[in-house]
Amino acid sequence: MEKQVGSKDADQIVLNAMASPIQSTGLKALARGKGSATIIISDHTRPVPSRQILPHILHELRQGNPAIAVTLLVATGCHRGSMQAELLEKLGAEIMAQEKIVVHDCDDTENNCEAGILPSGAPLVINRLAAETDLLIAEGCIEPHFFAGFSGGGKSVLPGVCDRATVLGNHCSRFIDSPNARTGSMEHNPIQDDITASIELAQLAYIVNVVINDQKEVLAAFAGDPAAAHRLGCDFLRKSCRVQAVPADIVITTNGGAPLDQNVYQCVKGLATAEATAKPDAVLIICAECLDGIGGEGFYQSLQECKDIDSLYDQILKTPQEETIIDQWQTQILARIMKEHKVIFVTRPEIRDLILDMKLDFAESIDEAVSAARICFSHDPDITVIPNGISLIVEPL
Prior knowledge:
Blueprint: E1 2-3, H1 10-19, H2 27-31, E2 36-42, H3 54-64, E3 69-75, H4 84-91, H5 93-98, E4 100-103, E5 112-117, E6 123-127, H6 128-131, E7 136-141, E8 144-145, E9 149-150, H7 164-170, H8 173-176, H9 190-202, E10 204-212, E11 218-224, H10 226-241, E12 242-245, E13 248-254, H11 264-275, E14 278-287, H12 297-305, H13 309-317, H14 328-340, E15 342-346, H15 352-357, E16 361-363, H16 366-374, E17 383-386, E18 393-396
Parallel strand pairs: 2-3, 2-7, 3-4, 7-10, 12-18, 13-14, 13-17, 14-15, 15-16
Antiparallel strand pairs: 1-11, 5-6, 8-9, 10-11
Helix pairs in contact: 11-14, 12-14, 13-14
């Protein structure tokens, strides 16, 4: 592990971590005698600094085995595939021109195959390039995650390169409803239990995960054994991002800017952080550009078509694991929040009607949103501001 605040650049932090891998041999040794390697990389929606990670992974692999055939597999989960322009911005022209890049498709049943059964009972069905490679590697970014506890580690496999059926089984309403499926929670978290199991079943051999700050600068890197390196990364991050706050009447937050504020779907993450420090009947305000609109047709339709939020939430809780539908988990968490709180989106006026269709409130500015929130109270309301709802684990005092 290498951690640094200040002087060293991101490349050196990553190189230092890879020079001392955690509970693992280095990539040069792992590459020897292997015919192929698949590197699971993040898609355009994740702030993983791939340009500071991938060149070093590729270089060390080829130092150990110049003939190894390498494929970069873009982890999309059930999201839309990354477009060429998005990958070019993320990876740079050199990697785009020189490397074989495949974008995972969760619905491509011919190119997905079973790798075992997860603790949840759901099959682990993953991209064939991940299942059949001689050496499986992943990059990633460790951040608080609103139901998996933390991102990074095995999330590159599940949901990253999984078939839709696997994602639906893991993201079922019973698991999302667990009080342990919350930000920063890893122990007895049924979502994370499946993710941890996927590491062994998929034979993920090595990861390079980083921790970044609000400016997307690399603060620390963790390389080596997927479970051990990820665990140390989570411990490091937990110490620096956990805060306590007095519950407030009004909570204002963001989704951390691009790329995670690209749609309403992603913004549920920031709202879950705001929820953690909100009084009963508090008003939550989130500011996000949402250049990509809502971010999920099923997510939008569930909220747009429901009679009311309480009925929708009850319906989701009654849905068996095998009948989980796409985006149900995001709808469930947003409905959980909306049952207790008025939610105001400060975003582009172009999506105002869509926001209102989803039974959310809309404002064009922070001032407008705060004014609308204040009138909900007969007293002068307390206000808490969380500048980046993605980056913190908030616990009530």
